[in-house]
Design brief:
- By secondary structure, the chain is an alpha/beta fold.
- The protein folds into two domains: 56-135, Alpha-Beta Plaits (2-Layer Sandwich), CATH 3.30.70.80; 139-588, 3-Layer(aba) Sandwich (Rossmann fold).
- The strands form eleven sheets. Strands 6, 9, 10, 12, 14, 16, 17 and 20 form an eight-stranded mixed β-sheet that branches. Strands 2-3-1-4 form a four-stranded antiparallel β-sheet, sandwiched between helices. Strands 11-5-13 form a three-stranded antiparallel β-sheet.
- A hairpin with a 4-residue loop joins strand 2 (100-105) and strand 3.
- Helix 7 (209-218) packs parallel to helix 11 (425-442).
- The protein is globular.
Length: 654
């Protein structure tokens, strides 16, 4: 009876959490049809500022070389998206209203500009301009080898050390310390180039976040031999600085960084972009300019890995759903949550951290009737170690000076070897970026969608956590590499339904650090997931470049169906969410047409799940719009409590 009650409560909880509300209609009878049309092309936060008359121009970052114009009045910094490539007519239209073009972002058919808020309606009435949003602030948000299985697959490919060799990982962050011995030593460096995607003086990491992230992805074993090695120590790091020393930047900076990567992808063999940063998700991924830049990068063959965010609980420590950050809401991105390994290589004690952002995604848009429609996609895609991880500390960086509790140098005196603790989904993301580099070294023909599918298919579901908390489960590099290396090369020559593997399917389980566990064998789409061995035995059309995994499913007349152009008939489709004990919750499927069940206002369920800070609003908001909790920075100072990755002596003398 007690077991039945527990399962019932779990079912009620997830049914409420996953219910997609067709947006509550808030259209006022006083708003004309024409006005409603132009307002639908403006992001809700910008629209709110315009309506309230509280528009204020933002300032550039402290270490930026540029400064805002004086006496801006009602000028506001925005990102304007066009219906096609940016033309002279678009620029002239902005100048005609007294605006200023700041820079063009061809990767999204858009441009950053400073315009009078009072003239935004005039711009929106142009058919060749599709959406205007604020240039929003964006913030950062040894053991790793063993617990992920990276160490044991180094020699899987005959005659080759599997370490990500020659794969370019672009780290879009606060810069990188190019003198740290985890990344540069004895004339050999992992850093291919350092570029400034915005108006920074240089690409050095004065804050410390970017160096830590880069070393997690691709740090060598020189510092503390075999103790603090990154996941892909042979990969090349592209240091693309988009954040200031405080870990702050703007959407236009991130877009500029992605644009640089797309433009220079061939010259530097950029195969992976790491985005350990994010901003509150306001716009739907369909309109969000940073999401569009991410999509453009994946369309040309770059795997984009994004931190989910650190808003998994409210100020009282209760679970919070709906806190996935942008651009983690983008379907093509690999969105990564954080797991706590408690510093052990074995995986039986691994859990999702309390702060890791949970789905569903809550970006939204207004339809032609003026209704607010929420994306409500299942995210994150998977989780990876991200609690109290030791990695490189940039020389004299702000983080280490301002937070001595992050210090991990009990045995170290060489400043070029300094390391520090850091926690958050921004630390988990580069673990997955390193894993993607290993898969692409093992099989260079893998597409971004296939890399994502393999990582999810081989992930380990963690007991006690649902899909909105862990996605497909805990990263399993051992299983992912074993599968990737037997995929036909080139895989892109295959058609939907053709045999994809060069040998028989490996046993769907892995053994790491003395413990064995099964693979989840599932691939998440937008609102459900596919499962079964046919996903990997046969090529699926959804793996093609420029195609999303989510293109394989769609809704018709309220039913979730498979698109047989992109997935074979033998693949199984779940219209629900898989619980950690294997129970299928069919009533909790994420349905686009709005069916579902909501709990009464302010109900706090017995398992500690809090919806919308204690209030279920009329439009079904899970995480209150426009709110962000105090732990929303790109990293967590102390992480979750408990044992963690231990400091160890470094016997290296140089």
């Amino acid at each position: 009876m007690k077991m039945r009650r527990t399962l019932l409560l779990a079912a009620i909880t997830l049914t409420a959490i996953l219910a997609v509300t067709t947006a509550f209609t808030r259209k006022s009878s006083a708003v004309s049809r024409g006005e409603e049309q132009w307002r639908s092309k403006v992001s809700p936060d910008l629209m709110a500022q315009i309506d309230s008359g509280s528009v204020s121009a933002r300032l550039r970052m402290p270490d930026s070389e540029s400064t805002p114009d004086q006496n801006d009045g009602d000028m506001v910094d925005v990102i304007i998206q066009a219906a096609g490539p940016v033309s002279k007519e678009h620029k002239d239209a902005v100048r005609a209203i007294g605006g200023k073009i700041k820079r063009v972002a061809g990767v999204i058919n858009g441009f950053a500009a400073r315009v009078p808020a009072s003239a935004i309606a005039e711009l929106c009435n142009r058919e060749d301009l599709t959406f205007i949003s604020p240039d929003r602030p964006v913030a950062v948000m040894g053991h790793l080898e063993n617990t992920t299985g990276a160490a044991q697959i180094r020699s899987f490919v005959s005659g080759t050390t599997l370490n990500g060799a020659n794969i370019g990982i672009a780290v879009l962050d606060s810069g990188v310390d190019n003198t740290h011995h985890s990344l540069t030593y004895n004339g050999i460096t992992r850093i291919s180039i350092q570029v400034r995607a915005s108006g920074f003086r240089d690409a050095y990491d004065y804050g410390g976040h970017g160096t830590h992230v880069a070393a997690v992805a691709a740090g060598t074993n020189h510092v503390g031999p075999n103790l603090y090695t990154g996941i892909a120590p042979g990969a090349k790091i592209l240091d693309v600085k988009v954040l200031d020393r405080d870990g702050h930047g703007y959407s236009s900076d991130i877009i500029a960084g992605i644009n640089w990567c797309v433009t220079n992808r061939t010259a530097y063999n950029i195969k992976v972009i790491n985005l350990s940063l994010g901003a509150p998700a306001i716009d739907s991924y369909k309109n969000d300019p940073v999401c569009k830049a991410v999509r453009a990068a994946t369309d040309v063959g770059i795997v984009v890995v994004v931190a989910a965010g650190n808003d998994g609980k409210n100020g009282s420590g209760k679970k919070l759903y709906g806190g996935i950050h942008s651009p983690g809401i983008e379907p093509s991105a690999i969105t990564v949550g954080a797991a706590n390994t408690f510093g052990t290589d074995g995986r039986s004690d691994d859990v999702v951290t309390s702060y890791s952002s949970r789905g569903p995604t809550r970006g939204s848009y207004r339809n032609s009737l003026g209704q607010r429609v929420y994306d409500n996609l299942i995210k994150p895609d998977l989780v990876a170690p991200g609690n109290k991880i030791i990695s490189a500390e940039a020389f004299d960086c702000d983080l280490a000076r301002e937070h001595p509790e992050m210090d991990a140098n009990a045995y170290e005196t060489n400043s070029y070897h300094y390391v520090m603790y850091m926690s958050g989904t921004s630390v988990a993301a580069p673990v997955v970026s390193g894993a993607a580099a290993l898969l692409l070294q093992a099989n260079p023909s893998l597409t971004p969608s296939l890399v994502k599918a393999i990582l999810m298919y081989t992930a380990q579901p963690l007991s006690g956590f649902n899909t909105l908390e862990q996605g497909a489960g805990m990263l399993n590099i051992d299983g992912a590499v074993r599968l990737a290396r037997i995929v036909k090369n080139p895989v892109t020559n295959l058609a939907n339904g053709q045999v994809m593997l060069t040998s028989s399917m490996p046993s769907p389980q892995s053994s790491i650090a003395g413990g064995s566990f099964p693979w989840g064998q599932g691939v998440i789409t937008d609102y459900a997931f596919l499962y079964g061995s046919n996903l990997m035995t046969y090529y699926q059309g959804m793996y093609a470049r420029g195609v999303l995994l989510s293109d394989s499913t769609y809704y018709s007349a309220g039913a979730l169906l498979k698109n047989l152009n992109y997935v074979t008939s033998g693949v199984l489709l779940s219209d629900g969410v898989l619980l950690s004990d294997g129970t299928m919750l069919s009533a909790g499927s994420l349905v686009y047409n709005g069916s579902g069940v909501l709990l009464a206002d302010g109900v706090l369920l017995s398992d500690g799940v809090l919806l919308a800070d204690g209030t279920m609003t009329s439009d079904g908001v899970l995480l209150s719009e426009g709110t962000i909790s105090a732990d929303s920075m790109g990293f967590i100072i102390s992480g979750d409590p408990g044992p963690c990755m231990a400091q160890k002596p470094d016997y290296t003398t140089q």
